[in-house]
Design a protein that fits this description.
Blueprint lengths: L5 E5 L5 H24 L2 H18 L8 H5 L3 H31 L2 H4 L1 H4 L7 E7 L2 E9 L11 E3 L5 E3 L13 E9 L8 H16 L5 E6 L4 H10 L2 E9 L4 E9 H12 L1
Helix pairs in contact: 1-4, 2-4, 7-8
């Protein structure tokens, strides 16, 4: 039996459905993590217990030992009555950020034509990590002239209406001095092996060695998705600033960067 091999390869046209599905999955992954973190936060647990106890007190649902086992189960409905609406409230507050991010993703120029978008610069690229025939993860680096642009095909007016934006050529060629990691995702079952560090290191090496034009590699990440955040820090990314907050508990989103000089120093020290 042939042992499966892990390889990192460039994106191919027949990968389109799989890659787009995984990008959508990655965009919504944070919602499940945010809901779980919020549900088990001490403040939320305290609120749940407090409201349940108030309901038990008002309805006189405290345990009644004279009814034996069933008497001790009497308070449970109160905890269930408050648990469900609190979980709903958490999801209702967290969901808009992630749905907006997913919608923004699907209206970006790279999502419309992945192969064409990441072929505009030799330092750009969309790479897939596979183990045998199994998809493991992907990384997409944009080193084009508009690598820092957040503009998409759609935009919102002040009235909230969505209009198509056709004022810009999204597929011009050229290489910028600043590259951006547009997408970075690894399947959860493979994360314990730290394979995400390998694909991220490959991406950085591709950006900085293909041409000498790129001096900085940028990314945005949140500690909410620990595998992404820790992998970036492990590679040498530093936090530039807090770019925003998300979710009911205000988890921060950090703008991070890795300079060529720092990457070369880290690479030389790891080679020793």
């Amino acid at each position: 039996m042939v042992e499966p091999k892990a390889i990192i390869r460039a994106y191919r046209l027949n990968d389109e459905k799989l890659v787009k599905f995984m990008l959508g999955l990655a965009a919504m992954e944070g919602l499940a993590v945010a809901n779980k973190r919020a549900a088990f936060h001490p403040l939320m647990l305290s609120l749940w217990v407090g409201l349940s106890c108030i309901m038990i007190q008002l309805l006189d649902w405290w345990p009644k030992p004279e009814y034996r086992l069933l008497g001790w189960l009497l308070p449970l409905p109160a905890f269930g009555c408050w648990g469900v609406p609190l979980l709903f409230a958490i999801d209702w507050i967290n969901r808009p950020y992630f749905e907006d991010a997913a919608s923004d993703l699907m209206h970006r120029p790279d999502f419309a034509n992945l192969q064409k978008y990441y072929a505009r610069s030799p330092s750009s690229g969309l790479f897939i990590l596979e183990y045998g025939s199994k998809f493991v993860g992907l990384v997409a680096i944009d080193a084009s002239k508009d690598s820092q642009s957040e503009q998409g095909f759609l935009k919102k007016t002040e009235q909230g209406h969505i209009l198509a934006d056709k004022t810009k050529n999204f597929y011009s060629s050229g290489t910028s001095s600043v590259a951006t990691i547009r997408h970075f995702y690894v399947e959860e079952r493979f994360r314990k092996s730290n394979v995400q560090q390998d694909i991220l290191a490959f991406a950085a090496r591709h950006v900085f060695t293909t041409t000498k034009d790129v001096n900085v590699l940028k990314a945005s990440a949140t500690p909410l998705l620990g595998y992404k955040y820790s992998s970036l820090r492990e590679l040498g990314f530093l936090v530039e600033k807090q770019a925003g907050k998300l979710g009911i508990l205000g988890w921060r989103v950090d703008a991070m960067s890795l300079e060529r000089a720092r990457w070369e120093r880290n690479k030389d020290s790891s080679d020793l």
